[in-house]
Amino acid sequence: MASGEKTLTVVALGGNAILKPGQEGTARQQIENVNETMRQIGKMVLSDTYKIVVSHGNGPQVGNLMLQNEIAKEEVPSHPLDVCGAESQGFIGYMLSQSLDNVFNQNGRGDIPVATVLTQTLIDEDDPAFEDPSKPVGPFYTEEAAERLREEKDYDMIEDAGRGYRRVVPSPEPLAIVEKEPIRQLLAAHTVVIAAGGGGIPVVREGDKLLGREAVIDKDLASEQLAEDVGAKVLLILTDVESVYLNYNEPDQKPIDRMTVDEANDYIEQGHFARGSMKPKVEAGIKFVESGGKKAVITSLDKVFEALDGETGTTITK
Amino acid sequence: MASGEKTLTVVALGGNAILKPGQEGTARQQIENVNETMRQIGKMVLSDTYKIVVSHGNGPQVGNLMLQNEIAKEEVPSHPLDVCGAESQGFIGYMLSQSLDNVFNQNGRGDIPVATVLTQTLIDEDDPAFEDPSKPVGPFYTEEAAERLREEKDYDMIEDAGRGYRRVVPSPEPLAIVEKEPIRQLLAAHTVVIAAGGGGIPVVREGDKLLGREAVIDKDLASEQLAEDVGAKVLLILTDVESVYLNYNEPDQKPIDRMTVDEANDYIEQGHFARGSMKPKVEAGIKFVESGGKKAVITSLDKVFEALDGETGTTITK
Q1: Which residue segment(s) compose the domain that A141 sits in?
Q2: Would you say residue A128 lies in a domain?
Q3: Which of A25, A181, A188 shows the shortest C-beta gap to B77?
Q4: What Rg, from alpha-carbon coordinates, does chain B have?
Q5: Residue A289 has pLDDT above 80, yes or no
Q6: Smallest CA–CA distance from A23 into chain B, residue
Q7: Hey, are the CB atoms on A185 and B181 less than 8 Å from each other?
Q8: Residue B1 falls inside a structural domain
Q9: Per-residue pLDDT tens for A19-32?
Q10: How far apart are CA A32 and CA B111, in angstroms?
């Protein structure tokens, strides 16, 4: 099948795709989860209908790296958050690449190339998020330790009810994927690409230099930016529920099959979607179709094909 | 200048390019070193004479990750060596990519794309190295801790005179770069690629599956494999000395300007080059020109251009 006929799709994996709630987080567990995920994602490629870029979160993995850094800090110089993010892209990209290689091999299609591209995401130094750090990252601390980090490292710390204190960092808007050109080149040559892991490593442009920043970019918004930057037709956001719901978790919850941008904006205004959870996914979907994307689909891993066909899940169109 | 005229070159960075002896290993120090390195490497690209792939070691970085894993193991599940290697590729690839982006931008050539490709290197499960693990990795342990690791984890441990006990892992031969096809695609599209970090993540093929192994592939031999796999004309191996020497560090030491494969093999047989240091570099050079490469050049970072012109450094030809 000619590549021109394939639908370029950015697939944003949910957290469950790599680490399930309650799991301890050994590499083995994560690899098993990834294998399950990639059997399904691989089918999209093997169907010869989709050309895909896979993006993913990194919350638990970067949290573990930060905890290791904290515990070992007397012996090993601690890394800043941007470096931990880069390390998590290496770890998760390795699992996803290898797992997808294996799915293709097991289906006699070992000829399909797969590549993880380390990704930096451009943000604006003047993003208002820097005035209001709100994204908790890394380990929990005692009140005394939190106070010390405030003084010594100028960290912003908040109390997380009952569980202790945590560092909060800004969550700025993604403006561009720094590696968009190489990613485009790979897609043009029929390679399946893994990119923008954890929302990408946040970098600002200072004069003629890129510099890393300690921040976290929402992975669904970064996936949307990636989809724009590579000219994708579809943005597929995977999560742990089959659809987006009105009145979610209430007796009268109701799945949304389709919504236009206007309807989606109305629902957001009415407060239907949880901040930091479903809301950024719907916002990413809106931004994508407004920027020229054909449709955004939000669903769960097991319903991917039905949802892409419009039989379940939630589809956002202009 | 048409790309056909550029000389495809794999540049294998030495350890000093990222972390200098005696440095503690903060991210900031490493970024400063990398910036210095990349100003020079960037010139190769800006000269419009070379198309390059950059590879690099990861010894100190993966050592620090393993030490963090060990210290934090009660709280965070420890990662196997292949995962630590993947993490180090993310970290180092991030520094190298960003630094090279900045060099290009500062020279008005922000249009040159740069990409770090996470790299797996295929090894043979039956490689004799698995019978004789010899490469020390990670932290030093007491005799008691070493004994415990032997029993609990089946690690091979050796005594490192005076400094304690260390784990040793196999150092098998690289057979192929798993991501060679995407790397080729990027090079064809004029992207500068960073790949095969730390020799690549060692993977074996078991039936129709790739699986990670706890081993370390020599980064110069992996760089040679990469050079073969992408069809490079030149393999440039950077180290901390200007040339390869006969009778190195003896009163009558003598730099070698050029050597043929036969001469190089003779010198190896005569024991001129140190195991784990200059020997694998010369061996990589020999293998490269025997496999059809035009020349291998071994020199220091500051002599790159003179050495490529044959004015200093050591050139190996068939």
Answers
A1: 133-169
A2: no
A3: A25
A4: 19
A5: yes
A6: B77
A7: no
A8: no
A9: 988 898 899 999 99
A10: 40
Q: Minimal Cα–Cα distance from A212 to chain B, Å?
A: 9
Contact between A199 and A10 under an 8 Å Cβ cutoff? The reply is no
Question: Is A295 part of the annotated catalytic residue set?
Answer: no
Side-chain half-sphere exposure of A46, counting CA atoms within 13 A: 18
Each residue's pLDDT, cut to its tens digit, for chain B (318 residues) gives 444 589 999 999 988 899 988 898 899 999 999 999 999 999 999 999 999 999 999 999 999 999 999 999 999 999 999 999 999 999 999 999 999 999 999 999 999 999 999 999 999 999 999 999 999 998 899 999 999 999 999 999 999 878 899 999 999 999 999 999 999 999 999 999 999 999 999 999 999 999 999 999 999 999 999 999 999 999 999 999 999 999 999 999 999 999 999 999 999 999 999 988 899 999 999 999 999 999 999 999 999 999 999 999 999 999
* Tokens (6 digits) for A229: 């930057």
Please tell me whether residues A305 and A226 are part of one structural domain: yes
Both tokens of B54, joined, read 């950059």
φ, ψ dihedrals at A54, nearest 5°: -105, 130
> Which residues in chain B have their CB less than 8 angstroms from residue A191's CB?
181-182, 185
Q: Is the pTM of this model over 0.90?
A: yes
A15 is catalytic: yes
Active site residue A219: yes
Chain A neighbours among B 121-180 (CB < 8 Å)?
178-179
User: Are B204 and B295 in the same domain?
Assistant: yes
Name the 3-class secondary structure at A196. coil
Q: Which residue of A has its CA nearest to B190?
A: A182
Q: Are residues B253 and B292 in the same domain?
A: yes
Q: Is residue B2 part of a domain?
A: no
Predicted complex: ipTM over 0.85: yes
Q: Are residues A137 and A26 in the same domain?
A: no
Asked whether residue B182 falls in the same domain as residue B244, the answer is: yes
**Residues of chain B found within 8 Å of residue A212, distances taken between Cβ atoms:** 94, 98
Q: What is the DSSP string of B159-212?
A: EETTTEEEEEE--PPP-EETTHHHHHHHHHTT-EEE--GGG-EEEEEETTEEEE
Closest to B27 in 3D by CA, of B55, B61, B56: B61
Look up residue A254 and give its two tokens.
């109701």
Domain membership of residue A2 (yes or no) is no
